[in-house]
Amino acid sequence: MNLDTDRFLQDLDTLRRIGAYKTGVHRPTYSPEDMESRRWLMQRMAEIGLEPTIDGIGNVLGRHRGPGPHLLAGSHLETQNHAGWLDGALGVVGGLALARAGLPVDVCAYADEEAHFGSGFLGSRSLIGALSEEEIDASRNRFDGTPLRDALAAAGLAGLPRLSLEEGRYKGALEMHIEQGTQLENGGLRIGVVTGIVGVRQWLIAFEGRQDHTGGTTMAERRDAGVAAMRLLHAIDTEFPRQCGERTTWTTGRIVLEPNAPHIIPGRAEVTFQFRDISTEVMDRLEATLRALVRESNRRDRCPATLTPLSRAEPAPCDPAMMRALTEAAEDLAPGAFQPMPSGAIHDSQHIARKLPVAMLFVPSKGGISHHWTEDTDRDDLVLGMKVLAEGARRFLG
Amino acid sequence: MNLDTDRFLQDLDTLRRIGAYKTGVHRPTYSPEDMESRRWLMQRMAEIGLEPTIDGIGNVLGRHRGPGPHLLAGSHLETQNHAGWLDGALGVVGGLALARAGLPVDVCAYADEEAHFGSGFLGSRSLIGALSEEEIDASRNRFDGTPLRDALAAAGLAGLPRLSLEEGRYKGALEMHIEQGTQLENGGLRIGVVTGIVGVRQWLIAFEGRQDHTGGTTMAERRDAGVAAMRLLHAIDTEFPRQCGERTTWTTGRIVLEPNAPHIIPGRAEVTFQFRDISTEVMDRLEATLRALVRESNRRDRCPATLTPLSRAEPAPCDPAMMRALTEAAEDLAPGAFQPMPSGAIHDSQHIARKLPVAMLFVPSKGGISHHWTEDTDRDDLVLGMKVLAEGARRFLG
Q1: Where does the Peptidase M20 dimerisation domain lie (chains A, B) (predicted)?
Q2: B275 in the same domain as B369
């Protein structure tokens, strides 16, 4: 194994210039910048002897030409809007470095992990056979409403076949990623060996009220959808801490009032709500709590609330043998500076885990910031993470 | 006096076709449809012998050519987006009917009562000298951000002089309007003689948090601006009913989370909040309550909240002599079917009241609905309102 960490950093620096925004990157899925980054990746793959393909959903796969057993290594190239330079890119460039070091690794950039379209993870779900043509037909860009089919056509991907994971080819799949939290930083640690990826259940909660003038409608007469939404969110804020697990998170990321005008009582409110946990049991309990709170809202408030599941990802435990290889590598290369930890964020590996043993390695995020252009990680930590990933892969491949 | 109520209804029917949307009207301020309605009004004014002018902020004034004492009568022509056919239009067309009946009435359509730009009431505030050139420079369309200066230029109004109320010309100002509530309908009444117009204080409450990934950031680490906003709104929901007056209203019409994406913790939240009351004392008490709740939020929550006044309109009592004239007219024409009542909505008359005695007459709104295309009033009620308005004006002019 001949790991070139300078070239690894150079590749990250080159990639961050494609769609550069302040010190971060703006590379929405299928945008010209995103497609440029995919072409750049295919050129790098070809340079180091991998066989590059782009498929009908935008996945870029670079196949190792030698004998196996093979590892699959990768992550995603597109970013959230005006986001960071490492989220996704680190795992792809890290996979490239493994292959360049001579390991029998296929490198993959999974398309749309960041959910610019529909519920996201289009690429990893397509690879495992969990993305139907009907879902592609129905999906739209969540910012501007562009149909996914139109976006694929504009990116030159329409009509290309979609790849599937080749049965029996891989011993496992690896993904290096920034932590997107502050557990490592706060603990003075440099490496996280991921024990599993949390599940996430995401919901649309919609409230139907009546749009009225704010002045002429007495408080007693109103059906204010915004007030009903606020009361339910307050009930969640009160009740979830009593029902959650140790590392559960829950978030209202999106609220839309209609018409959202200062002098008009909101006639409709939409809330996008999610919770995450590593335990299915905890998630079942929280789902029951949420359903009970919505029922209570419907008994108490004048604006009917409806609860619609938007997406659901099951928790994915990491493979013990792969974790062991990474842990041994960390003991050698970062003694006393690593820990096992769950991933609170979901990743492509969560979907790949339905077909293959998976493992993930975390490096620290400065200030825990991600999905923002100020996201950053020390270059020393990037290099250390790369070394542990490579040594862990070497040991696992045996 | 020779009141033509058929022609009055015809004018309303003609006007609702300009910018028709379903059974309502979409005539945003300075849009082509709004400007067409202003030109239509100037033609009607000229037909009945008034001298029409449009000024540099879009006010249309039709001056009576005969001797005084004069009344000023009017309301506004633009509408909220996709709103009703009577809100504003009724007062303008009602004024036109007074002038056509031979009364010494100047008719005015005040521009942008509906606050498409800045804090609204551009026309009535301009007429009383309460709209500065600096405010015009700084104002933008609140939906698309178009600078007010650009909108005035596109409407052909740039460079026209702005009118001022002529000192000593008017004995008072009258405005007929739909109730925008259900007090009349629920009481089986057909006429409201307005006793005064509520004051309104409007605020921007902004919360600064930190934008982070929803999965990787533990609940304890978060600075979720959306949660902080929700908690303050819940405190208002709990505390305001204990501090308010009999007819106080309070409303959160607008909430904006940034970036408002399902998987990102809101880094910033903006809330537009207002309250209304007929009593300055009650409003002072509510303002003190609001300030205390924001201070409490800043002691308790991790996301600093700032409270910024956006607009403030003082309560405006109606003129006793004008109210008496309208009440006597209602006793004759609608015995047992009228009541005195405050206006919970603000109107151009609130600003005109700073210079002239004012009075307002309400007709019922079906279901209390306004600012929505389903807004409506029975034609019999419109005609009765018109008759009471005319008879009240005749008596007041004496």
Answers
A1: 199-300
A2: no
Q: Do A276 and B369 touch (CB under 8 A)?
A: no
CATH number at residue A305: 3.30.70.360
Partners of B60 in the β-ladder: B54, B109
Residue-level pLDDT at A88: 98
Distance of CA B58 to the CA centre of its chain: 16
Residues A166 and A205 in one domain: no
Q: Do A276 and B345 touch (CB under 8 A)?
A: no
CA distance A243 to A319: 29
Question: Do both A186 and A205 map to the same domain?
Answer: no
CA distance B59 to B125: 11
Query: Which of A289, A313, A337 is at the close of a domain?
Result: A313
Short-list A195, A193, A191, CA closest to A337: A191
Question: How many structural domains comprise chain B?
Answer: 2
Model confidence pLDDT, tens digit, residues A271-300: 999 999 988 999 999 999 999 999 999 999
Rounded Cα gap, residues B123 and B129, in angstroms: 10
CA distance A46 to A89: 18
Question: Are A239 and A335 in a shared domain?
Answer: no
Range of the domain at B303: 199-313
Nearest CB among B215, B249, B254 relative to A276 is that of B215
Residue A383: give its domain's CATH number.
3.40.630.10
Q: What chain B residue is nearest to A265 in terms of C-alpha separation? A: B253
Residues A95 and A37 in one domain: yes
What pLDDT sits at residue A369?
87
pLDDT of residue B212: 85
The residue with tokens 């018109």 is: B386
Residue A361 near residue A388, CB atoms below 8 Å:
yes
Spatial distance between the Cα atoms of B113 and B180, rounded to a whole number of angstroms: 15
Based on the fold, state whether residues B363 and B229 are members of the same structural domain: no
Report CA B16 to chain centroid distance, whole Å.
19
Q: Is the dihedral of CA B354, B356, B362, B365 positive or negative?
A: negative
Measured distance between the N- and C-terminal CA atoms of chain A, rounded to whole angstroms: 12
Q: Please tell me whether residues B334 and B296 are part of one structural domain.
A: no
> What pLDDT is recorded for position A264?
92
Same-domain status, A10 and A134: yes
Q: Rounded distance, CA B386 to CA B190, Å? A: 12
Q: Which residues of chain B fall short of a pLDDT of 70?
A: none
Express each pLDDT in B313-335 by its tens digit. 889 999 999 999 999 999 999 99
What does the block give as tokens for A231? 């009361």
Single-letter code of the amino acid located at A108: C
C-beta of residue B368 within 8 angstroms of C-beta of residue B192: no
Query: If DSSP codes are grouped into helix, strand and coil, which group holds residue A212?
Result: strand
User: B286, B225 in Cβ contact below 8 A?
Assistant: no
Place of tokens 């820990």: A339
Query: Quick check: B29 and B114 in contact, CB under 8 A?
Result: yes
**Chain B closest-CA separation from residue A352 CA (Å):** 19
In the prediction, which pLDDT does B248 show?
A: 94
Q: How far is A397 from chain B (nearest CA, A)?
A: 30
Domain termination residue (choose one: A281, A313, A345) = A313
How many of the other CB atoms lie within 10 Å of CB of A355? 18
